[in-house]
Amino acid sequence: MIAEKKVSGHARRKLKEIFDRDGSEIAAEGLRRIAELYRIEAEIRGMGPGQRLSARHARTAPLVAAFGEWLQAQCRRVSMKSRLGEKLAYIHRHWDGLQTFLRDGRVEIDSNNVENLIRPIALTRKNALFAGHDEGGRSWARIASLIATAKINNVEPFAYLKVTLEAVAAGHPQARIDDLLPWNFNPSS
Fold first, then answer.
1. Which of 86, 95, 125, 176 is most buried, taking the most CB atoms under 10 A from its CB?
2. Which residues contact 86 (CB under 8 A, 6 or more apart)?
C-alpha cells in the first residue's frame, strides 16, 4: 500500500522535473491537473474517512478519469524514448496506485506526511554511523529513534527520557516494557 500511496507525489515530481528543465506545455498541463486534485484534498483534509470518500467520488474521481484519458492521449502522442515520454510512461504504469486514495477515505493522496515524519529518524540513524564505534552508533541510533518517536507522539523528549530512564533505574519490570514506550507516556506517572 505504501508504494501505491507515493504515486501521486512521484507523478507530480516527475512532471515538475520535465517542466523545470524543458518548460514543456504537456508537463505544465499535467501539473495543473494534479494541482486540482491536491486543492480538493486540502479542502477535505480533517474530515472523517466516509466524508472524504464521498467528496472524492463526487469531485475528484471525474478529474482523475479525465487525467487518465489525457495521459493516454499524451502517451500516444509523445515518444516513449524522450524524457517526457519516460515520465508519462512511469505515471501510466502506476495508474492503479494513483487511484488508491479514491477507494479508501483513510488513505492520503500521497505519503508526504509520513515521509516528512520519518526523514529525521532516518537521517539521525544514518549520522550515527559516524559515532566512532559500532556500539556507540547503535546506542545513539536507539536514543535518536526514541526522541523522534516521542516528538511524533507529541511528547516532550527530555521529560520522556528522564522519566523512562528513572523508571528503568528503579527496576521497572521488563515484562511491562511497553508501558515505557512514547505513545504510552504519561508525564505524571
1. 125
2. 80
Name the residue with higher pLDDT: 128 or 65: 65
C-alpha 38/C-alpha 109 separation (Å) is 8
CA 148 distance to own-chain centroid? 16
Kindly state the DSSP code that residue 13 receives in the 8-state scheme.
H
CB atoms within 10 A of CB 47: 13
Could you give the C-alpha distances from 98 to 1, 81, 104, 166, in angstroms and in order?
A: 11, 23, 12, 47
Report pLDDT for 131: 67
CB 15 within 8 Å of CB 37 = no
Cell of 79: 515518444
Under DSSP, the state recorded for 99 is T
Annotate 130-171 with three-state secondary structure: HCCCHHHHHHHHHHHHHHHHHHHCCCCHHHHHHHHHHHHHCC
Tens of pLDDT, residue by residue over 113-155, are 767 767 776 666 666 666 677 787 778 878 888 888 898 889 9
Put residue 38 in one of left, alpha, beta given phi > 0 → left and psi -120 to 50 → alpha: alpha
